[in-house]
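4.2 Preliminary Data

To establish feasibility before requesting continued support, the project team ran the inverse folding procedure on a target of 198 residues. The structure was first converted into the token representation described in Section 3, and no sequence information of any kind was made available to the design step. The complete token record follows.
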């Protein structure tokens, strides 16, 4: 099936995320700055506006929004903490337009295998099932930086590293604990999936 271009803002648009609330579609994307648009039909979009010019932490990207209560949403993003470790941050909104920083939903600690300069917890995605929340993050960016120069030539020396997703669980959508590696130390860590951004 051929894909259809729905909007071209002339900007980078990494990991776009869309949702429908009442009669309005919302489209979110990044990197570094948090952009959004609105639409009545999911095809014709209004003007781009910036929800956050300067997010709380560096390497803000890959936004995903989860509704947790009437008129309450959590935004999950890739981030990097002050300690140099990769993490997933949360922001909160009560109108899908204004966002405030809440805190770290998943941090990387001692034993975490990948903490690249660009943050390794990519494409966070959260869903609820039977009273628990599940967070998946693609654990990426442990390859040398020059590998990116090879991609236009369709050369990908370490493709498997792009298909390594970690899955966590929690009863609290704001807190998935500290990831300490696959050795069983992390209480919320469930398993790995051989895929990217599920």
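Position-by-position output of the design step:
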């Amino acid at each position: 099936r051929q894909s259809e271009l729905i909007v071209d803002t002339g900007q980078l648009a990494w990991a776009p995320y869309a949702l429908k609330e009442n009669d309005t579609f919302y489209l979110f994307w990044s990197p570094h700055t948090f952009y959004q648009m609105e639409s009545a039909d999911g095809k014709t979009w209004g003007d781009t506006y910036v929800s956050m010019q300067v997010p709380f932490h560096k390497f803000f990207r890959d936004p995903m929004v989860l509704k947790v209560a009437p008129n309450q949403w959590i935004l999950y993003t890739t981030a990097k903490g002050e300690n140099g470790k990769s993490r997933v941050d949360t922001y909160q909104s009560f109108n899908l337009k204004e966002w405030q920083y809440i805190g770290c939903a998943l941090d990387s600690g001692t034993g975490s295998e990948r903490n690249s300069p660009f943050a390794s917890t990519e494409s966070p995605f959260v869903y609820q099932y039977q009273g628990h929340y599940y967070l998946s993050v693609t654990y990426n960016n442990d390859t040398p930086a020059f590998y990116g120069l090879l991609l236009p030539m369709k050369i990908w020396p370490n493709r498997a590293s792009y298909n390594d997703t970690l899955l966590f669980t929690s009863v609290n959508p704001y807190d998935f604990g500290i990831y300490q590696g696959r050795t069983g130390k992390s209480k919320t860590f469930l398993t790995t999936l051989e895929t990217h951004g599920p």
